[in-house]
Write a structure and sequence with these properties.
- The chain has 343 residues and is an all-beta fold.
- Helix content is 1%, strand content 50%.
- Strands 1-15-14-13-12 form a 5-stranded mixed beta sheet, with no helix packed on it. Strands 2-23-22-21-20 form a 5-stranded mixed beta sheet, with no helix packed on it. A 4-stranded antiparallel beta sheet has the order 3-26-25-24.
- The longest helix has 5 residues.
- The radius of gyration is 19 Å and the shape is globular.
């Protein structure tokens, strides 16, 4: 299938000796157990909401040297699935499969040049289902979507800029089919689909954040929300997720890895930039801040008394308190909401 390639734009890199912007700060109240692998290993989380018991919700997260970890909201590891070099992960609830609704998760697998599909039971147990080979040299980022009929799809990208859209399910069967492809002009990774608006947000690490219809055949409609070097984003642009709140309260949060910050955009207000924040050491708990965040995820669902308005989960590239392997930090969404005019 012929890929559509977006024409490259002139890039201007400006060296600066300025100090990082003095953004507002929040602190994590929970952190996960460190991943087992050393060095750069933890990468991308995805939040699974237990509708029957929200306080028992889970976080699926990749150890990109070993496989998929599953953590509870106290940060304890509950399950680990050895699958090799899983890089990014995403999930969708309420997918029609075999006559019932279930949750599917998908993760890029750089060991097998594929993406893996997992199923999450109603009790939160994760099971590997299938490995789908793809014609990519280095599968990298992935994000999922679910349509109004309960069918799931994934957008998967390669480090060279290629993107593919795969439909995972059709008529209640798990049978991946390649739908269309396109390409960015340089390395992507983080992406997210807002199912409510039908929009795909795609990060290009040295360029910025793109938005387009969640349909790879319509890549010619892609527009740039914000550019690296022209606003708050400092390369690399990394993880991103959508907080789907009530009407007028949906937000895109993007990891600006180059200055350890997170940019917030108001989705209903033409993606207006609201401001940025950083995650720093907790003033009372032995939980450090985050640096060089790769992946992140959010939910607006109430998750018990700890996270009554949802939470933000971010990867920490330098777990310092105490020094240990990388992990993931959990932040009460109310901490973020208090900074910006989100209401």
């Amino acid at each position: 299938m012929q890929a559509m390639r977006i024409a490259p734009l002139l890039l201007v890199f400006v060296a600066s000796c300025a100090q990082p912007a003095d953004y507002p700060r929040v602190a994590a109240t929970v952190e996960t157990a460190p991943v087992a692998s050393k060095r750069d290993a933890a990468d991308d989380p995805a939040v699974w909401v237990n509708v029957a018991d929200p306080s028992s919700s889970l976080i699926l997260a990749t150890d990109k040297r070993r496989g998929l970890a599953v953590y509870d909201l106290a940060g304890a590891e509950r399950q680990f699935i050895e699958r090799g070099r899983l890089n990014n992960v995403d999930l969708r609830r309420d997918v029609r499969l075999g006559g019932v609704e279930t949750t599917l998760a998908a993760a890029t697998n750089r060991t097998t040049q594929s993406f893996d599909v997992f199923e999450v039971s109603a009790e939160g147990h994760v099971t590997f289902r299938i490995e789908q080979p793809i014609e990519m040299d280095d599968p990298y980022g992935i994000c999922m979507m679910r349509d109004e009929r309960g069918n799931a799809s994934v957008f998967v990208n390669d480090k060279n800029g290629d993107y593919q859209e795969w439909r995972l399910t059709h008529a209640g069967e798990l049978a991946p089919v390649l739908m269309a492809s396109f390409a960015l002009s340089s390395q992507p990774e983080g992406c997210v689909v807002d199912d409510r608006t039908g929009l795909l947000y795609a990060g290009e690490e040295s360029r910025g954040v793109w938005v387009m219809p969640a349909d790879a055949s319509r890549a010619d409609e892609m527009t740039l929300i914000d550019s690296v070097g022209e606003g708050p984003l400092v390369a690399d642009v990394e993880g991103m997720s959508v907080y789907s709140g009530d009407a007028g309260r949906s937000f895109l949060v993007v990891s600006s890895q180059g200055d350890d910050s997170f940019a917030v955009y108001h989705i209903e207000d033409a993606h207006r930039y609201l401001g940025s924040f950083r995650v720093t050491d907790h003033p009372e708990l032995p939980i450090d801040g985050v640096q060089e965040t790769d992946g992140l995820d959010m939910t607006a669902h109430a998750l018990g008394d700890q996270f009554p308005q949802g939470m933000l989960v971010v990867q920490d590239g330098d777990n310092r308190l105490p020094p240990d392997n990388q992990n993931f930090k959990l932040i009460d969404w109310r901490e973020v909401a208090a900074i910006f005019p989100l209401r």
